[in-house]
Amino acid sequence: MTDTIIEKIINTDPESKSLDLKAQSIEQLKQLFPDVFREGKVDFEALKAVLGEHVEDNEERYNFTWHGKNKARQIAQTPSTGTLRPCKDESVNWDTTKNLFIEGDNLEVLKLLQKSYHQKVKMIFIDPPYNTGKDFVYKDNFRDNIANYLELTQQVDSLGKQFSKNTDTSGRYHTDWLSMMYPRLKLARNLLKEDGVIFISIDDNEITNLRKLCDEIFGEDNFVTSISWQKKVSPSNDATWFSSDHDHIVVYAKNKTTWRPYRLPMNDKQKSYYKNPDKDPRGDWNSATYTCNKNNVERPNLYYPLINPNTGEEVWPKKTAVWAYSQEKSRQHVLENLIYWGKDGKSNSPRMKKFLTESIGVVPRTVWLYTDVGHTQEATKVLGSLITEIKFETPKPPRLIKHMLHIATSKDENDIVLDFFSGSCSTAHAVMELNSEQAGNRKHIMVQIPEPINNKKYHSIAEIGKDRIRKAGAQIATESKSSTDLGFRVFKLDETNINQWEGSFDSLADILDNSVDSIKPERTSEDVLYEVLLKYGLDLTYPITEHNLADKTVYDVAFGSLIVCLEDGITREVVEGIGKLKQELESETTRVVFKDAGFADDSVKVNAVQMLKQYGVDDVKSI
Questions:
Q1: Strands 619-622, 7-8: parallel, antiparallel or unpaired by DSSP?
Q2: Beta-bridge partners for 280
Q3: How far is the C-alpha of 563 from the C-alpha of 545, rounded, in Å?
Q4: Which one of 1.10.287.180, 3.40.50.150, 3.40.50.300, 3.40.50.1820 gives the CATH number of domain 82-265+363-493?
Q5: The pTM is what?
Q6: Cα gap 300→139, rounded to integer Å
Q7: CA atoms within 13 A of residue 240's CA, in its CB half-sphere
Q8: How far is the C-alpha of 189 from the C-alpha of 21, rounded, in Å?
């Protein structure tokens, strides 16, 4: 009876589960085409009629598919049954940092982040397995990926499963890689802001398939470019055919009509082109052509003579390339001394002065030289200066990722940067370094599976990543005395904290009604608290304050947005204390969550909702 008064969030509240992408897509379809639904099902014949000529019915048509694609789609749409458990002892500046390091299978982690970080990420950079035949490819288990993950990482009794290489002798060499990448990219797209962008590093092995995959997930129209990064200083003279000196970096926008790259800062060589031969008081300047790419037929109003002030002669543009500015604008340029007539002042090709102080930066180009963004040797050297115990074969130099950060993020907007194949955490290093240089506010989220390695100090790649962030942060703090956020919160993927939550949701009510305590005995209140944050879609770095109310610990999340009490023996005094706390915090959106078995008696449980309503709390749930 009492369960109808305080609903269990794990059973009755749809917001409490990780995002169901299939249900979300169906709901979006209903909003667009409500007339194609019959008794809750899609009538495809009706949908075809509505779409008309946009339906492709031909058997022979352009299509990109592989064995296992439907399963990959299903995996992307299946909600996660896991949680992220806080790990304060491995973190740095837990109470103040806005950065995250999440240890776990990125497929499940991306699912768990769908609510809390939906359309909040400004830039994603990933350096996934290149599928060279030597690198690890994630083996996803459609039925229970959490159990599969725990077995692979040896956190539970092994059933003989292990991390494996996707060798080129496999009959499904490319399909396994595509099935691994598809759901992860699908989920990642949901996290991008409308003006967000993703950079993906890849080599020749899968560049073609990656482009086709991204065309399908992000849309062909949202392809921005493919960058060639010169990764080597010198050629590989032992190469059989060609020395592989570059990698590709594929760039897709969430919405290309919305996204625009920021200009890059000029380097010293580019600045050196700016001089001040006429001692202009506005400082150093360079010059640009005064003409445009239009002819006198297309732009007759821009075909007119300029008067050279040094010779008094009329100077006409070519008929095939008229002036770039109107006559009125040109007269203003003359008055402001902005037209340059060459060294001797007699040129017939005037140019426009562009001052260094007014420069908005340099347009990004599609060839990135190692002199500008670093190379693999530099990346190894940078990592080796921090961690000497192991050598990575293909780390990315922080300068390379800083180049992307310049293009895709702003120092002032609290932009979130995500890397869900984070490896040695070059991305986190780059974010902290650039923030320090610019007094920036970017935040990073790193995700790495604890792939085991044979090393005495580090037992997994995830351990290397965490230690690199610690050491890079300490180095930056020493060298720059920066106030930049150099900390990070560590979370680890695990099974849910709630008994039987991973079972069928249809049967949970019966299961929990027969259970004395819905929370697993080995889990802490903070474990459960952060699972509640994930289910309600709250940021994992929100400030959390502990209050003692009638000798019970009560958590206040984000200044009253959520209040959680997971104690036993909850009395009327505790409930009233929560109501008063809500009023003190002056929060308008407070939700309150209790442990279902935590009330001192049924009368307190029955009256809790009405008591809290008196304080303006309408949303009360139990676990």
A1: parallel
A2: none
A3: 10
A4: 3.40.50.150
A5: 0.83
A6: 64
A7: 0
A8: 12
